[in-house]
Amino acid sequence: MIRPAFVKRTVALVVTLLIAVGAVPLLTKNKNFAWSRSFATFTPATEKKSVAEPTPTPRRPDDPQALIAFRNRLMSEQREGNQHGVYIEALNTHEPIAAWNERELFNPASVVKLATTLVALEKLGADYRFRTEFRATGEIDARTGALNGDLIMLSGSDPSFSIPDAQNVGDALRRSGVRRVNGSLVVVGPFTCNHNSQTDISAGVFRRQSRLALRDNTRFETDKSPYNAAKLLLAVESDTLLHILQQQNAHSVNSMADFLGDYIGGVRAVRDFLVEKAGLPDHEVFVMRASGLEINRLTPQGTARILRMLTEWLRARGYKLEDVMPVAGVDYSTLAGRFTEPEFAGSVIAKTGTLTETDDGAAALSGVAMTRKYGPVLFVIYDMAEGRSVRHLRQMQDEFLKNLMTELGGPAALASRLEPAPSESLQSRLILADKNPS
Length: 438
Known about the structure:
Layout: H1 4-20, E1 33-35, E2 42-44, H2 65-76, E3 84-90, E4 96-100, H3 112-124, E5 131-136, E6 139-141, E7 146-148, E8 151-154, H4 163-175, E9 180-181, E10 185-188, H5 199-210, E11 213-214, E12 219-221, E13 231-237, H6 241-251, H7 254-263, H8 266-276, H9 300-316, E14 348-355, E15 362-371, E16 375-384, H10 390-407, E17 429-432
Parallel strand pairs: 7-9, 8-10, 9-11, 10-12
Antiparallel strand pairs: 1-2, 3-4, 3-16, 5-8, 5-13, 6-7, 13-17, 14-15, 15-16
């Protein structure tokens, strides 16, 4: 079986070679070419137009003092100006506040997860739950506790299936009378457990953690139809997609985002949504991984549009941005240790992005900052590390954003989130055949 990790490494190598011959846009390239729907060719941007272009910036904002100081500090460190980009606008009025290289392409790193989040919510809905079913092809001997047949796992592509889930399945089967399986574990469809991206490794984790006595080796199949009539023993339903996305983004779980991306149609579905629904120009979007690993390209202004669309989608359904993203200085997340000062804690909702080697490193920060003068402001800060310390760039980003918030009247903490998110662990539920969820 060809492992997904091998395929991803191969694709990464191909894209790297394409960069070498100029097929994939580098950060310093101009954007007179648009990425075609295949990974093979570029076509002139004039030959393919987006369904909807983003609303042009009504005016170029005067540079706030915070941006001037940020730019001067970068230049004082002998950095390349075109390797840094900023775009900030008021959420409620669309008024631009700061812009620097806002239409240039950058590697957004894990900020791509915001695009994956938006597409998943649009396609599945906030209350969607993934269902993993366990069925039997043979009869259970009540006297010996033997399942004389195979144990079938019909994967529902749950990106959050965990070790506790595997343990609960094993315990529930033993309570129902199954003490051993005189057959195989048959895994049907892609399956992940404990954030392992490979189905075979995840199946091994499940076998060990469920502590089921399985006689034969695990088999892997893709067609579920032969097993639809097999006897249902139990099912595991995940927590809601909304809660899964909160954990994915708070902890930047790459395997979860990539698995979810595959489930909603792959990176092509993400990219097509950004062009056709969000209205990003064709040549300003390149998505290689739904997690943001490896080589991806977005502009600061285009990212702000994604963030705005995500915010509006949530608001229209009674949710808030902090329902799918962490609050700095409050939640345990990749923002730990950032914006923790009493005056700033609880005033920044953001997604981080970090690459240490790809494109010589990148630090990204995108989200909403609450200010007294402008209310919530959308911000996108992309900094390419140029082979230097990513941690140092994070510190500079934080200083810039704090200075900007002070310049905009000061920070205003979210009254609704001054305490950490209710639960760090997702709450799946076990459903026995012909019984209610538990």
